[in-house]
């Protein structure tokens, strides 16, 4: 889809949700992970989507696929890039090529259970956005990227404590 089609689709979605707010909240599609062998996992989702993960050899994996942590950063990067494109289409801006780089800092003492006071997940996360051929002023582009970052559901989930529950079935 081009910018005009994206703008139209977003307008239709916004109008529908504004008129039917009770339908705005829903259960997201499931992701089902199956441990294959060693630390390799296959994750399946809707419409036949699948991805693979594996852990690095240093912790017992084969390093044959990205780690779950890398997939988190990939989800952040792709979500921010997508939201920039969506917002640019709404505003009639041409962002040109969008590059989003996400990195994070972690401490392996958490995941390895060496020190329970150390978080198992990332301690910090950083997004760097490059818009090398974008139309618009610097102020417009900063506002565009800031809006996208603050409305990105993956960034939001990383920033805010999301209530999680755990059920164990036999």
Layout of strands and helices, then pairs:
Elements: H1 3-19, E1 32-37, E2 40-44, E3 50-53, H2 68-91, E4 98-105, H3 108-111, E5 124-131, H4 138-151, H5 153-159
Antiparallel strand pairs: 1-2, 2-3, 4-5
Describe the overall structure:
This protein has 170 residues and is α+β, with helices and mostly antiparallel strands. It has two domains: 31-66, no CATH class; 67-159, GMP Synthetase, Chain A, domain 3. 39% of the residues lie in helices and 18% in strands. It is built from five helices and five strands. The strands form two sheets. It has a three-stranded antiparallel beta sheet with strand order 1-2-3, with no helix packed on it. A two-stranded antiparallel sheet has the order 4-5. Helix 1 crosses helix 2 (68-91) and helix 2 crosses helix 4. It is globular. The N and C termini lie far apart (45 Å). The model has no long low-confidence stretch (mean pLDDT 95).
Question: Which key features would you list for this structure?
Answer:
5 strands; single chain; 2 domains; three-stranded antiparallel sheet; two-stranded antiparallel ribbon; GMP Synthetase, Chain A, domain 3; 5 helices; alpha+beta; globular; about 170 residues
